[in-house]
Write a structure and sequence with these properties.
The chain is mostly helical. The protein has 7 helices and no strands.
Amino acid sequence: MIFSNDRDTLRKMYRDAWQKKLASLPMSPLEVQITDVIELHPEYHSAMEHDDLDRDYTPDRGRSNPFLHMGLHLGLREQIATNRPAGISAIFRNLAAIMGDAHRAEHEMIECLAETLWAAQSANAPPDEQEYLGRLQRLLKQGRQTQ
């Protein structure tokens, strides 16, 4: 269900998981993953509790899309767990060690993921894994240079 194309269904899944977490109700493994990400983003807690699920988050409104951001976290975590594309798990471990903060490392890597997805969408093509890994390698190299 996390891979649904229905925006409302996905947003409701986030909200329902968060409500279960707040009520200390049993959750599925996927709901635990979702709430782990929500917990790391207190700036989104209100959106999970009060915002209209139909709200459009556009740059001109000055607010980032919490569902997109957290979805990128979940996607990245899945990539790291499965090491797909090959090498991403090591990049994450190294970057997290350099930064001393796994969540910060995820945020940096999410920027690379978002750029890769944007480029693929703009070209109406599948994401280029090699270009994505190249972006991540450059990020890691920059992290090493700042240390």
